[in-house]
Amino acid sequence: MIALALTAMIQTEAPLPCLRDGDTISGEFRYVESKHPNGTALRHGFVVLNEPVCFSSALNDPPVPVSGRWIDVFGELDSSGVQPGDGVTVEVSDCFEPMTAWHLGEINCVHARIVTRDPM
Question: Residue 42 domain-assigned?
């Protein structure tokens, strides 16, 4: 019994899937409103995932993996008619980790193209 408990304690969790250019992510679309320290109002679109994904930025040497569920997406989503609460599957590319107060997400993706949309 003790051996079984010890085995369970030392088992590690499976690694998170890592996001790469061209991958698709699925989740709920939401807007987040905030304010930049200079006073500029910010409104960003997000795909909120059920489970976190990892991302390793090439901007860091060596790359440092980060993980997150809140993916800040740029691209066609604002003009697509997607509404907060809609389920979406989005193809992402040119992702990076937040670097300034302009970046609100845990992971930011410059290009996001809707693959499917499930209006709520």
Answer: yes
Is position 10 within any domain?
A: no
For position 58, what pLDDT does the model report?
Answer: 66
How far apart are alpha carbons 43 and 33 in whole angstroms? 4
| Total number of domains in the chain | 1
pLDDT digit string, tens, across residues 69-105: 999 998 766 667 888 999 999 999 988 888 888 888 8
What distances in angstroms separate CA 30 from CA 1, 58, 84, 85, 109, one per listed residue? 47, 27, 5, 6, 15
Domain membership flag for residue 74: yes
**Whole domain around residue 80: which residue ranges?**
15-118
For residue 6, name the pLDDT band (cuts at 50, 70, 90): very low
The answer to whether position 85 is within a domain reads yes
Residues 43, 36: Cα–Cα separation, whole Å:
10
Q: 């193209």: which residue's tokens?
A: 113
The dihedrals phi and psi of 102, each to the nearest 5 degrees, come to -75, -20
What pTM does this model have?
Answer: 0.78
